[in-house]
DNA sequence: GCCCGCCTTTAAGTATGACTTTTACGTCAC
DNA sequence: GTGACGTAAAAGTCATACTTAAAGGCGGGC
C-alpha cells in the first residue's frame, strides 16, 4: 500500500490511531465515542478531533449524530475500497480475510485488464512489460525474492494501467499490497514458481502482439495460481 | 447511487458544491483554493471550510500544503472508488467516460461474482434471485421500465451479495447507478431486450442448482450485452 | 393506567480571535 | 551565479463562547 495518509498534521496522527483501531474491531459496531473524551485521550483540541472524525465519517467507518456521539458503523457499510481502509485492515487481525477478498477481486479484474491491455497498450508500455517480465526471469532463482517482487508489482501495475480503464488502473496499489503480503508471509526460502514466471513472459508477449484472448487466458492462469496459494497463505 | 453524503451539516453543503465542481473539471488540476477565500464565498466559518477540505483531501481530490493553499490533484490520483466521487462524476460532464469505466468494471466483476454466488448463495438468496428474475419477466413488456429497473437492480445486488465477497458486495451501488443511468438515458419507449431477460432467468436457475460455470458464462453474456449497448449510450 | 406532547439537558455543530508552524520566495552578501 | 538568511503568507492548532438538534424524562390529558 502506498504511503497515503501518513500525513503530518495532528489530525492525521489521530486518524492513524483511530482508523486501525476501528477496522481491527477494537471498537465494535455500535460503540459510541464522544469528542471531548477523544480530545482528552489524544491531548489535542476539539478542532483536530473533529477533522479526524470527519474523515472517518467520509470512509463510512463512523456516523456522527447530535446528542448521541460518534458511533462506529457496521462492517458492511465501510468504504472497503478506500486505500487507507484497505491498508489498515491488511495490517490488522482480519488480514487473512482481507487478503482473500482482494485476491478474488484480482482474479476478476486482472484477466479482463490484460485483455484490454492487449488492445490498448502503447509501445512504451509493451516495452516496460517485457522488461519487467525479463526482470522476473532474472531474479526468479537464488533467494532474490525482494528484487523479484519489485518486477512482479511493476508488471501488474503496467498491465492495469495499460488497460486504459481508470478504475482498473487504481487497483495497482491493491495488487501491489497483495503481492507484498504474499512475499513477506510466504516461505521466504522458496523461489517463485517457474510456471508463474513463464506465464508472465507469455502475457507480455501476448499483449505485445495484441492477442487479447490469449493475454486474458494466461492472466486467468496467473490469478488462478494466486487463488490456489491462498489456502496456504490465508487459512 | 445511494444518498450517501447529502448530510445536513454546513460542511456537507460546502462539500456538495466543491466536490461536483472539482470532479467536473471546473477547477483543473493545479488550481489553488485558499481557505479564507472559500470562507468568504460560502459565508461560513473557517471550521466548516477546513472540515470540507479535510474530506476532499481524504478522497485525494485535493492536497493541502502550508503557505501554498489547497491544490486540486490530477485526475489519476482521485479515489475513483469513493461512492461520492462516482456519484459526482456520473452527474457531471464526463458521465459517458465514467459510465464506460464502470461498465467495464462490471463486465469483469459480475461474472466471477455469479460463479461464486452459485457456490455460496443461501436458499433465501436463491429465492430472492428467482423472484426478481420473474419480476423482470413480468415487467419486461408494455412500458414498465421503472418497475423493470427495480427488479434488475435488486437482481444484480443479490448476486453480488451472494458471492460472499465483501468487495463485490460493495459494488451493488455502482451497478445500480449504471443500470439507472442506462434506463434514464435510453430510448424510453423500447422494452428491454427479451434475450437479456431470459439470461437473467437462466442465471437465477444456474445459481440455484449450483452450476458455477454456467452462472459465470451466462452473466458474461449479460455484461457483454451491456458493453454493446454502451456505444449507443455513451458515445 | 397509558399515551401524547412539551421541556430539559446533553453533545455535536458553528463562529471567532489569538497564536504557532511551516515554507515559498525575495534579498543580500559572497 | 550561488548560497544563506529573513520575511511574510497561509495552513494548522488552540481555547472559548454560543447555537442547534434531538434523546429521554416529566407532566398533563385521555
Mind explaining what this structure looks like?
The structure is a homodimer of 235-residue chains. The first copy, chain A, is mainly alpha-helical and 235 residues long. Chain A is built from 11 helices and 3 strands. Chain A has helices at 10-23, 35-42, 46-58, 83-91, 95-120, 123-138, 145-162, 166-169, 172-185, 194-209, 212-233; strands spanning 32-33, 62-65, 69-72. A 3-stranded antiparallel β-sheet of chain A has the order 1-3-2. In chain A, β2 and β3 form a beta hairpin. The first copy, chain A, is elongated. The model of chain A has no long low-confidence stretch (mean pLDDT 93). The interface between A and B is large, with 37 and 37 residues. The first copy, chain A, binds a DNA duplex (30 and 30 nucleotides) through α3.
Main features:
DNA-binding; 235 residues; homodimer; mainly alpha; 11 helices; three-stranded antiparallel beta sheet; elongated
Largest sheet strand order of chain A: 1-3-2
Low-confidence stretches of chain A: none
- Report the structural category of chain A: mainly alpha
Helix content of chain A: 55-70%
For the record, give the distance between the C-alpha atoms at the N and C termini of chain A, rounded to a whole number.
Answer: 22 Å
Q: State the order of secondary-structure elements of chain A, H for helix, E for strand.
A: HEHHEEHHHHHHHH
Compute the gyration radius of chain A: what is it? 21 Å
